Amino acid sequence: MAFWDASAAVTLCARQPSIAEARRILRRHEQMTVWWGTSVEIRSALARLLREGRLSSETYAGAVRRLGELREWWDEVLPSERVRGVAETLPERFGLRAGDAFQLAAALTWCAERPRNRPFVCLDTRLAQAAAALGFAVER
Questions:
Q1: What is the pTM of this model?
Q2: Which of 5, 75, 105, 125 would suit a FRET pair with 134, their CA atoms being 20 to 30 Å apart?
Q3: Region 57-80: what's the mean pLDDT?
């Protein structure tokens, strides 16, 4: 089982260049855990790609369908006071934006704040650096 940040999970939906590696990681860990807001972040990323002309309408529709399929079986870390409390400390400590702070706080909650060698799948450089600094085994 691995925690997936939205930056990595979107590749499974949009079939971006890094999809082959993302699929290998998914097969290796068999199950993915994500933050409760990940589907919203993915929809936002997909809409941006569509607006920028980097996805066709047909490709966008397929990506949204694949997102729905992923949501059927991934595990989600739900919002809680604990997640918010941890997230509040992360922007100052690592220079993270709010969304990334929630992603990392959810990952810390998922592993009961024992991140050492726990897989964290992420394509965002700053978030990956913060996760590695906390002890996660970052996979790209």
A1: 0.94
A2: 75
A3: 97
Q: How far apart are CA 97 and CA 58, in angstroms?
A: 32
Assigned token pair, 135: 């002890």
Structural domains of the chain sorted by starting position, each given as residue range(s) with its CATH number in brackets: 2-139 (3.40.50.1010)
d(CA 125, CA 93): 16
Whole-number Å distance between alpha carbons of 7 and 98 = 14
For residue 99, what are the contacts with CB-CB under 8 A and spacing of at least 6?
A: 6, 37, 41
Whether 16 and 49 have beta carbons less than 8 Å apart is answered as no
pLDDT digits (tens, 9 = 90+) for 47-58: 999 999 999 999
> Exposure of 140 by Cβ count < 10 A (0-12 exposed, 13-18 middle, 19+ buried)?
middle
Q: Rounded to whole angstroms, how far apart are CA atoms 87 and 83?
A: 6
Q: Report pLDDT digits (tens) over 73-108.
A: 999 999 999 999 999 999 999 999 999 999 999 999
User: How do strand 137-139 and strand 119-121 relate by DSSP bridges?
Assistant: parallel
Which residue shows structure tokens 């509040």?
88
